[in-house]
Design brief:
Strand order of the largest sheet: 4-6-8-3-5
Helix content: 40-55%
Strand content: 5-15%
Structural class: alpha+beta
Largest sheet: 5 strands, antiparallel
Radius of gyration: 26 Å
Mean pLDDT: 90
Distance between the termini: 86 Å
Order of helices and strands: HHHHHHHHEHHEHHEEHEEEEHHHHH
């Protein structure tokens, strides 16, 4: 009888306690998608044991930017600072100065390795140091995302599914080869990983064992990471002995719509047309014959730059003019304390969705012929200038609220 009373007491107590929260429902579509990739993973050289171990319990991360989820607005690029911050805020002097000081210290610490990298690949030591500094603050700011989860999510729900399908398979291959543990396989929201931020495809395409330990380790080995960054630039066409860019002052009558990559002239021809080098950096006699373009990141509001082929090689590392300016300027500042001669203005950067709307308007009117991506790059700024001239607006080649309002009214 006592045991029966105990049974009923426990039953009553159990009924009064809150029920445990139900397990979160698995994303069946994502699980089926990942499972369907096994034949491709096997063909890429991934073992079944690795595939099962690394994909077991793998979940998508729908908080990532650049996703296109059915029934929900695209998350776009708001989390990528290169495309939503003003140049003045992105290329901030206090940040550049701090990183330059650290770069000088590290250039001495790793002098032998950097000399060998420069001799082998023709890429200045300061340039690979600057990439390291910009990407991970010289290793002090490791990325917070699980790399495999990022590339799997982007492959399933991103706006570049085909690209990330390959990155996911190659991420599995990295883990299968034991190049890095899953715990240390951290990445940006876009899947770039390591001290100098490589996508898995870049790891296999450009990674190099420079410390001679028999493995390519861009996560822990400074020689491997820096040499791999130099090799990537060299593989993409870096031209030894040529600067990446230098600051200039264009002539007063310069048409800002000509500040596009397609307008290329020998540096000597630009100088003869009235472009003046600033900051004490003049092109060498050998450089005067090099083709170059004029770049105005803030239209007519901020500094102007003469940019060479090497500028666009850096841009293949990260497709952003501000990224290239940051890295290139930081590389220069590791050698000299001289900052920009022309100050950046306090211009406001339009939100990605506003730039996207502007690009659609400009494309409809025949001024813009590139991707609708919400990124105010060279071609967008030139198209803005062409529209400003046609509409009788003040010409500055800067995507502003005033230009967007005029375009809205012209519909």
């Amino acid at each position: 009888m006592r045991s029966l009373r105990r049974f009923f007491a426990l039953a009553v107590l159990g009924a009064s306690l809150p029920l445990p929260a139900p397990a979160r429902a698995a994303d069946a579509g994502f699980e089926a998608f990942v499972a369907s990739l096994w034949p491709e993973a096997r063909e890429a050289g991934v073992s079944r044991a690795t595939f099962d171990r690394e994909t077991r319990g793998l979940e998508p991360d729908y908080r990532l930017p650049d996703l296109a989820l059915p029934g929900r607005p695209a998350t776009g690029a708001p989390a990528q600072p290169e495309f939503v911050r003003t140049p003045a805020d992105y290329v901030k002097e206090t940040t550049i100065a701090r990183l330059a000081n650290e770069g000088r210290r590290l250039s001495q610490r790793h002098r032998d390795v950097l000399d060998r990298i420069e001799a082998r690949f023709g890429v200045p030591a300061t340039m690979v140091l600057a990439i390291w500094g910009r990407e991970t603050d010289f290793g002090r700011s490791p990325e917070k995302y699980d790399a495999l989860r990022v590339v799997a999510t982007q492959a399933y729900a991103g706006r570049r599914k085909d690209q990330y399908r390959t990155e996911f398979l190659l991420a599995l291959k990295i883990l299968d080869e034991g190049a890095v543990t899953r715990k240390d396989f951290r990445a940006s929201w876009a899947g770039a990983t390591g001290l100098t931020q490589f996508l898995p495809s870049e790891y296999f395409g450009h990674g190099i064992d420079f410390d001679g330990d028999g493995r390519v380790d861009i996560w822990h080995s400074v020689p491997d990471a820096l040499a791999s960054a130099a090799k990537q630039l060299a593989d993409k066409g870096w031209q030894a002995g040529v600067t990446w860019a230098f600051e200039v002052r264009p002539p007063a009558a310069f048409d800002c719509t000509l500040a596009v990559p397609e307008v290329r002239r020998p540096i000597g021809a630009w100088l003869a047309a009235g472009v003046v080098p600033l900051g004490g950096r003049a092109p060498s006699p050998a450089e005067r014959g090099e083709p170059a373009s004029l770049l105005q990141p803030e239209g007519l509001h901020g500094p102007s730059f003469m940019v060479t082929k090497n500028y666009f090689v850096i841009k293949e590392y990260n497709f952003s003019d501000l990224y290239v300016l940051f890295v290139g300027h930081l590389a220069d500042r590791i050698v000299t304390s001289r900052g920009f001669t022309t100050p950046w203005s306090a211009s406001r950067q339009l939100h990605t969705t506003s730039v996207e709307a502007m690009q659609k308007h400009l494309a409809r009117l025949g001024y813009y012929h590139d991707k609708i991506d919400g990124k105010a790059g060279m071609l967008t700024r030139s198209a803005v200038g062409a529209y400003q001239k046609a509409a009788g607006l003040p010409l500055d080649c800067w995507p502003s609220e005033a230009v967007l309002s005029s375009l809205d009214a012209a519909r």
